[in-house]
Prior knowledge:
Layout: H1 11-37, H2 42-53, H3 58-61, H4 63-69, H5 74-97, H6 101-106, H7 108-137, H8 144-156, H9 160-169, H10 176-203, H11 209-240, H12 245-265, H13 270-283, H14 293-312, H15 323-350, H16 355-366, H17 369-382, H18 387-412, E1 417-418, H19 419-427, H20 433-437, E2 445-446
Helix pairs in contact: 1-2, 1-14, 2-14, 2-18, 5-9, 5-12, 5-13, 5-14, 7-8, 7-10, 7-15, 8-10, 8-17, 9-10, 10-11, 10-16, 10-17, 11-12, 11-13, 12-13, 15-16, 15-18, 16-18, 17-18
Amino acid sequence: xxxxxxxxxxxxxxxxxxxxxxxxxxxxxxxxxxxxxxxxxxxxxxxxxxxxxxxxxxxxxxxxxxxxxxxxxxxxxxxxxxxxxxxxxxxxxxxxxxxxxxxxxxxxxxxxxxxxxxxxxxxxxxxxxxxxxxxxxxxxxxxxxxxxxxxxxxxxxxxxxxxxxxxxxxxxxxxxxxxxxxxxxxxxxxxxxxxxxxxxxxxxxxxxxxxxxxxxxxxxxxxxxxxxxxxxxxxxxxxxxxxxxxxxxxxxxxxxxxxxxxxxxxxxxxxxxxxxxxxxxxxxxxxxxxxxxxxxxxxxxxxxxxxxxxxxxxxxxxxxxxxxxxxxxxxxxxxxxxxxxxxxxxxxxxxxxxxxxxxxxxxxxxxxxxxxxxxxxxxxxxxxxxxxxxxxxxxxxxxxxxxxxxxxxxxxxxxxxxxxxxxxxxxxxxxxxxxxxxxxxxxxxxxxxxx
Length: 451
């Protein structure tokens, strides 16, 4: 019997997809540049563009146009989601290459303290608020305990892609505080994926000690394989592409996507594998930032904006017209912001960082962004959330991501630069004049302070 071939995409579906990508990207670029003009990173405009084009504005003002451009067809939207997921993995992978392993080794205790404090306080506040909110909103098909645990997880996560994009937009990713925020965010997100798997198992009706142990074992297995097998494999792959930018870019993309698929196959999130892979790539002698500059340009100027505008499409602000939903949204937002800031600030001060460094860490880790959106989508798929509670959780992601840039700008201007940061910036091909000109008078370059 002849093999049955899968038919190609229908002409109309292709037309809609191309229009979606073109118009979404155009809106993200326009509002991203507008945000930059008023002194905010482009990610603020990109997220806002998605909210405008979603049911909150376009779906309300021009429902027929919205239904044609953004049809309620899972297959059509999944094509956009697929492009967005590739964008996230590459963005996270590039973020991993920016990590300074020397600083990670020296300040691992500081990062761990900041992470644990930034995890436990918002987790506890989210769980405590989840029970009364479950009675008020009656969300999804889950019981109050599952909803409360889910809300706690949603409150305690950070978002490495959003933190990274914000820091890259602001030319701050080389700063020591930025590196600490990314390290602590990685720990937070790893714990978040672990807890999300537990809550997901509870939502579908089964959870045992074996399931928890297996999830933890898988995470440790990923780290072991990365060190023992991944590092020499990556070194060999990069060596084979030496002398050609195109080959290096292609190799990096392949490595990041395969690493993401590996952790996804293990029941962990793909972003975890992509981030670990990026760290390994950046730690090899064969890697230089100059060789992946073309990839960085495409990801930051095209793929990342497309993902962020797509993430905003699922926000429906009309649900906030209901007084109880609006009250719950404000309560969740206050808990999310206060819990993360208090946790990060406390952990930083216990590590003897300055108050401005602590505030900068709180501002960076408070940005929930893509991770919060992914968590919300999982909750919606499992029936833990309904349309209203989904909007509340995604609203937290959007608002906290918008809050981060101005707060970071204020705090970072008051943190002294170090010679270590200067060398790190030069190593990644950046210039010093613009970054150094943002310092307040008398803020000289100092020797690095290791804590």
